[in-house]
Amino acid sequence: MSQILQELREIIKKKSLRTGDFTLASGKKSSYYLDCRTTTLDPRGSLLIARLILETIRKENIQAEAIGGLTMGADPIAAAVAVVSGIEGQPLPGFIVRKEAKDHGTQKFIEGYDGPPGSRVIIVDDVCTTAGSILKAAEKAEQAGYKVEATFCVVDREEGGTELLREKYPFYALFTAKDLLSDA
Fold first, then answer.
1. Which of 174, 157, 178 is nearest to 30 (CA)?
2. Residue 145 buriedness (CB in 10 A; 0-12 / 13-18 / 19+)
3. 67, 130, 171, 180: least CB-packed within 10 angstroms?
C-alpha cells in the first residue's frame, strides 16, 4: 500500500469509521457506519483523495472533460479533484448533480459544467453501498448528453453496488470496507 493510501486509510479510520449498531439509508442494519464527509471535508483527507483519484485517472488513461456526482457526497470530492488538477496543470472541472432540477432560472440538474453533448465525464461519490447515488448521477449526466467514462468512490461497502456499476461503467474504489475494518 502506497504511503498516500496508508495515510488516507488512517484518516478515514480515525474520522469517518464508527462501529456499533446502525441503520443505513437503504434500511439495512450494519455493525459499522462510514461518514466520509468528515474525511472528504478534512484538508489533508481531501487532498489525498484528489491525488489518488487523479493518479488512477492517469494510470488507467481515463479521458474526461469533467468530474462530479450527486450532491452532497460527491461535492467535496469533485471540488478537491478540480483544484488539485488545476494546480498540477491538467485542469479537470468539477460539477454537481442536483437531486431535483431547479424550479427557476435554467432548471438544470447539472451545475458547474456546461460542456457540449458527447463530453466525457467521471462520476464520483464518497461511499458505495447500493450504487444508487452514482447511478442517479450517471443517468442525469447521460440525459444531459454526456458520456460516463468511469465511476469512483472513496469506500466500497461491497454490498452489491459494485456489480451494478461494473455492468455499465468502469468502477474504481480507493478502499473496500474490508480494507478499513481489517484491524478496527
1. 157
2. exposed
3. 130
Looking at the DSSP assignment, which residues form a beta bridge with residue 152? Answer: 124, 172
Q: What pLDDT, on a 0 to 100 scale, did the predictor assign at position 105?
A: 63
What is the rounded CA–CA span in Å between residue 73 and residue 133? 9
Return the C-alpha cell found at 71: 450532491
Report the C-alpha gap between 95 and 148 in whole angstroms.
Answer: 13
pTM: 0.95
Cell 483527507 locates to: 45
C-alpha cell, 87: 494546480
Q: What does the alpha-carbon distance between residue 154 and residue 160 come to, in Å, rounded to a whole number?
A: 16
Flag residues of the chain having pLDDT under 50.
Answer: none
- Collapsing DSSP to helix, strand or coil, 130 comes out as coil
Of 134, 124, 140, which Cα lies nearest the Cα of 167?
A: 134
Could you tell me whether strands 94-97 and 110-111 are parallel, antiparallel, or unpaired per DSSP bridges? antiparallel
Q: Residue 100: its pLDDT value, please? A: 82
Closest by Cα among 97, 60, 61, 58 to 81: 58
Return all residues near 59 (Cβ < 8 A) that are at least 6 apart. Answer: none
